[in-house]
Design a protein that fits this description.
It is a single chain. The two termini are about 30 Å apart. The protein contains 3 helices and 30 strands. The protein has helices at about 80, 160-165, 170-175; strands at about 10, 20, 30, 45-50, 55-60, 70, 100, 105-110, 115-120, 125-130, 135-140, 145, 150-155, 180-190, 195-200, 205-210, 215-220, 225-230, 235-240, 250-255, 260-265, 270-275, 280-285, 295, 305-315, 315-325, 335-340, 360, 365-375, 380-385. By secondary structure, the protein is mainly β. The longest helix has 7 residues, at about 160-165. Strands 1-2-30-29-28 form a 5-stranded antiparallel beta sheet, with no helix packed on it. Helix content is about 5%, strand content about 45%.
């Protein structure tokens, strides 16, 4: 990756690793959700959210020249843009956390209320793709198949969704099992075909491509978990179901090695694993005892197994770092190494804007993550240099 020379650098005091700060706005800056790419395949452009008092819009940063420009000018009402119940209110703008980068043609698909638009990140040429009925509400962190042909997303009855997410977490849990007709749909960019994949009585918040023909989706109606389906639709299976110790799979990342995940009873007491959805072969391993709320780090190749660790209590967040697995051991504890030391983040602990959500860049030299910037007390986009980090050893072939 060729990087603009004027980007500011820092050093992680606990590991000595170099950090490169890519943004410096008086606003919260965060990438597209880490299940999907934010950086183009040629490592030239980064698409990200900028959220301030005026609302949330998408921007594109040229990583080689430092040129930064606004992509979108969406004007949703404040009731529309927030990603409920997982994030904080964000004013007007694009529907938060639901935009997708198409790495085949370097376009971005985003929702302007119920209107779905596509914009080219270099030419800024824009077109409207389709509109949803006003009674529906787009709810998922969506995806585009790696071949660039299909945009896949989910939506739900708008009035029910607002009722379900109007209060706190306990209100959401109460309404979640009552969900009716959450629809996962796929839109074909070439033909305009709109295809129903699944209609489920569950809230599908994450749709993650597994190649160009299959998807991992989250979650079942009464627990966390990983469902698996195909582009043809009308079927699904639940992989890595609840284990006898009560752990359920939560965050997961689709890699060339299989689906990497963490499983927990709540925040803490975690294990990790890799599951191949076609052979049903898998491995699991205990995560360090001090891990709290955990996000599975995303290396698309599946060679580096790493996790984001967040520990907090009612007084705030106390520990936010990343650890990598050095070596997988079949019959004993795995070896772990600090990848990045404790770093602050700002904003509500329940906000998606305050998690690292780390993803390895296409050239395997950096981890893109969201980290705290003390000068503005906001979160900005950073690269962590991992050019010297070796892949996790002794990982089995699950095919």
């Amino acid at each position: 990756m060729e990087l603009y020379k004027v980007f500011k650098t820092e050093t992680d005091p606990e590991t000595g690793r170099k950090l490169i700060r890519l943004t410096e706005w008086n606003a919260f800056c965060y990438p597209l959700y880490y299940f999907i790419p934010s950086i183009t395949n040629d490592n030239r452009f980064l698409v990200y959210h900028k959220c301030d008092d005026t609302g949330v819009q998408l921007r594109v940063l040229n990583l080689q020249t430092g040129e930064d420009k606004q992509l979108t000018h969406a004007a949703n009402s404040a009731d529309e843009a927030q990603w409920r119940p997982w994030c904080t209110p964000c004013g007007d703008g694009v529907l938060d956390h639901r935009s997708v980068l198409n790495t085949v043609n370097n376009t971005v698909v985003y929702f302007d209320c119920n209107i779905t638009r596509e914009i080219n990140i270099e030419t800024l040429e824009e077109r409207e793709l389709f509109s949803l009925d006003k009674e529906r509400y787009p709810i998922s962190q969506s995806c585009i198949t790696p071949d660039g042909k299909w945009f896949v997303f989910s939506h739900i009855d708008k009035s029910f969704y607002y009722e379900m997410t109007a209060g706190n977490w306990s209100d959401y849990i109460k309404y979640r099992p009552l969900t009716k007709d959450c629809t996962i749909q796929a839109y074909n960019f070439e033909t305009g075909e709109m295809r129903d994949i699944l209609i489920l009585n569950a809230v599908m918040h994450h749709i993650i491509p597994y190649g160009s023909d299959y998807f991992a989706i989250n979650h079942p109606p009464t627990e966390s978990g990983i469902l698996f389906t195909g582009l043809e639709g009308r079927w699904y299976t639940h992989i890595r179901t609840k284990s006898a110790d009560g752990r359920v799979a939560n965050h997961c990342a689709v890699t060339n090695r299989g689906i990497v995940y963490e499983a927990c009873k709540f925040h803490g007491d975690n294990c990790g694993g890799i599951y191949h959805p076609f052979t049903h072969r898998y491995i699991e391993y205990k995560l360090p005892e001090f891990f709290g709320y955990t996000h599975t780090g995303f290396d698309p190749n599946g060679d580096l197994i790493f996790y984001e660790n967040l520990n907090y209590d009612n007084t705030g967040i106390h520990c936010h770092n990343m650890y990598k697995m050095n070596r997988y051991e079949i019959d004993g504890p795995c070896s772990w190494e600090l990848l990045m030391g404790n770093r602050p983040t700002y904003g509500s602990r329940s906000s998606q804007k305050s998690h690292f959500h780390p993803r390895v860049t296409p050239d395997n030299r950096y981890i893109l993550f969201t980290g705290g910037y003390e000068k503005t007390r906001t979160n900005q986009l950073y690269l962590l240099d991992i050019s010297d980090v070796k892949p996790t050893e002794n990982l089995p072939d699950l095919e």
